[in-house]
Amino acid sequence: MLKFTAEVLEKAFVVIVKAEEVAHRAREHAEEIARHACERCEEMARNACDRAEEVARHACEKCEAVARHAWTLVHHHHLPKWLRDNEFLTKGHRPQLSSFGSCFRSIFRVHTETGNIWTHLLG
Q1: Where are the alpha helices (DSSP H) in the chain?
Q2: For residue range 23-56, what is the model confidence (pLDDT) as tens digits?
Q3: Which of 6, 26, 30, 83 is the most exposed place for a label (fewest CB within 10 A)?
Q4: Which residues contact 113 (CB under 8 A, 6 or more apart)?
Q5: 53 and 12, same structural domain?
C-alpha cells in the first residue's frame, strides 16, 4: 500500500486547484469567443436582411418603371377606325402607338399582329 505524505497530498491539492483555475479561465474564454461569434452572426444576418430588402426595393422600382412605359392590349371597339381591320379578332390588339420607337418595341410583345409581324420579318 502506498503511503501519502502530507507534502505529496498538498502538492496534489495545489495541482488540482490550478487545474480548476485553468479550466475556469478556459471556460470564460470559450464563452467570450462564443458570445463574439453570436454577435458577428447577428450582424451578418442583419446586413443580409438589409441587402435583401434593398434588392427587393430596387426590383420593385424597376418593375414600376417598366409598367409606366408599358401599354396594355385593347378591345377591337376601342381602336381608331383605321386600325379596325378584322372584326373577328376582338381582343388582344395593341393600342395606337405614338412613336416609331414604341411601335418597333411592340414587335417583341404578344398581340394579334405578333405572328403576322414575325412571319414577314423572318420570311
Answers
A1: 6-69, 100-105, 114-122
A2: 999 999 999 999 999 999 999 999 999 999 999 9
A3: 6
A4: 93, 94
A5: yes
